[in-house]
Amino acid sequence: MSSPLILVNFKSYREGAGNSAGQIGSAAELVMQESGVTIGVAPQFVELHPFCRHYEIPVYAQHIDAVEGAFTGRIPAFTVRAAGCVGSLINHSERRLTIAEIEACVEAAKFNHLESVVCTNNVGVSAAAAAFSPTYVAVEPPELIGSGISVTKANPDIIRNSVAAVKRISPEVKVLCGAGIQSGECVKTAVDLGADGVLLASSVVKAKDPEEVLRNLVSLL
Ligand SMILES: O=C[C@H](O)COP(=O)(O)O
């Protein structure tokens, strides 16, 4: 079985920019090399190309647009691919899309050889997203995001039931879970519930020592 994915979303946190973004990138690269666990990052857009050039870790965009040409201020899938990224988040709860936009973005990702991580907020939306055959469905109850309360403790059923719903529709679609993920115990519980990894942000990006948190996250795998 391939390694679970630990995907760190830098969001728009100040700690996820400039030198501190580089500190997280270096820590992710070191812990991935030492542990063999896949640690991906989703830095802010201006950091995508530098991260892809500088670190031997999978880099994801936080969003893509299914556009090309005379569009301003958008993030075309082909430019994310050209920057060297392996994939992109789509429909994060902080960047919600319509169902038509989600489908278009998943298709744009496929066309540009990008992994797609479609974010969902409950079991039903996870099942709907699976119908587009993305690479991943990432289920996160919005009320727990940034709360420091782990979804693996507060709502394990959303993980277990999303995995079952997604696999019923598209067995090849992998499932991540997120919201409050902060420890190796959270990651192990998520995997034990059938997830293929986790999507997280604040426990690493806002940490005084991101490397220490990343080591803990992989410690029980
Ligand atoms: O993209 C990450 C998720 O929104 C979870 O965020 P969090 O780990 O800060 O709760």
From TrEMBL:
Pathway assigned in UniProt: Carbohydrate biosynthesis; gluconeogenesis; Carbohydrate degradation; glycolysis; D-glyceraldehyde 3-phosphate from glycerone phosphate: step 1/1
Q: Does the keyword Isomerase apply?
A: yes
Q: Catalytic activity, per the record?
A: D-glyceraldehyde 3-phosphate = dihydroxyacetone phosphate
One Gene Ontology term of the molecular function aspect: triose-phosphate isomerase activity
EC number(s)?
A: 5.3.1.1
Q: Which domain of life is it from?
A: Archaea
- What keywords sit in the KW lines? Cytoplasm, Gluconeogenesis, Glycolysis, Isomerase
Q: What Gene3D superfamilies does this protein's entry cite?
A: Aldolase class I
Which locations, inside or outside the cell, does it occupy? Cytoplasm
Task: Please tell me one Gene Ontology term that the record gives under cellular component.
Answer: cytosol
Matching Pfam families, A to Z?
TIM
One GO biological process this protein is involved in is: glyceraldehyde-3-phosphate biosynthetic process
Residues at the active site? H92 (electrophile), E140 (proton acceptor)
Which enzyme type, at the first EC level?
isomerase
Q: InterPro entries from the entry? A: Aldolase_TIM (IPR013785), TIM_sf (IPR035990), Triosephosphate_isomerase (IPR000652), Triosephosphate_isomerase_arc (IPR022891), Triosephosphate_isomerase_AS (IPR020861)
Binding of substrate, residues:
N9, F10, K11, I145, G180, A201, S202
Q: Quaternary structure per UniProt?
A: Homotetramer; dimer of dimers.
**Could you say which protein family the record assigns here?**
Belongs to the triosephosphate isomerase family.
Function of the protein: Involved in the gluconeogenesis. Catalyzes stereospecifically the conversion of dihydroxyacetone phosphate (DHAP) to D-glyceraldehyde-3-phosphate (G3P).
State the protein's name: Triosephosphate isomerase
Record the organism. Methanocorpusculum parvum
Lineage, uppermost ranks: Archaea, Methanobacteriati, Methanobacteriota, Stenosarchaea group, Methanomicrobia
